[in-house]
Amino acid sequence: MRAAQLQASGLEGLRVGDIARPVPGSGEVLIAVEAVSLNQLDLNVIAGLGPGRAARLPRVLGLDPAGIIVELGEGVDARRLGQAVVVKPNIPCGDCARCAMGHEADCPAQSVLGVHRDGGAAEFVVVPSRNAFDRHDLDAATASATVHSLPIVINAFDAAAVTAADRVLVTGAGGTLGHAAVAYARHLGASVVAASRAELPRLDGVEQIVAPDAARLAGRLADLDAFDVAIDVSGHGGTIAAGVAALGWGGRAVFCSASVDARLELDARDLYLKRKQLRGVASADYEHVRRALRHVQNGTIAPIIGSRHPLDDIVGAYRGFGASPRGKVVIDVV
Ligand SMILES: [Zn+2]
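Above: the input record for the complex with zinc ion. Below: its predicted structure, written as tokens.
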């Protein structure tokens, strides 16, 4: 089968070629992949940095493939054959106390598709059947663009218990996660301020702040009323700190990424005296994935697809990743 396999660190080590088709083991399914998206984590895997260091090479990339189930491993419900599915990248262990409670996001023994095992930037991928979600009538590109970002955002908003009465700050609003966070805050009826480094398209009911760096963001936020909730998807320590500082009494901050600048400096006295909270959300529960797919199916939230590339052009797609226009970069495998 054709696959984008990282054979050595660096983009020059990524090759599209023929490798053996994987075989589904017990409880697993084989998926004929139609589409998969590019993610920031792939760049870490390619560079061998941060969370990407966990990948053993050679490794097929691709976190979030969507396709059709074409073969079942032992013990998988026969009715799943032929089902159109999309794969949640984080694979929980299924055995621990958190998994038993349905808190798969917090499973301490989870692995990630395309990092710890071969991913879906290939004609076929094998995953545990429980991680392959029925995508109903969603097309493969839309389902792939949904399955990783929106569930994490929903988890973050749940963690901060956001309601329509809340004033919410979203920092890093320019990216895929940021778009999902602003869309979900609007869906909840909260009042939203979206902060980004570059100007965004105007959205009804969304106040915008453009600040090229954390210091200027902090300056702009100091002029505004305090926030009840700060959701950061930028992963930048300075930006997370600016969000926490902008919270009012009992404010809740959640950050969904810590990959850019991991250092975080907070005013501990302010955090303590104003009863603020700060939480990291790095994954999603199965229930968040089902909710995210439902929101996209019924049109409440629409992911933005930025550009599409054939599998053979995946190296070029990574090269332009980041500089490409707003929205998810999708690889069409077939
Ligand atoms: Zn577990």
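Notes for the reader.
The chain has two domains: 2-147+304-332, 151-280.
The first strand starts at residue 2 and ends at 6.
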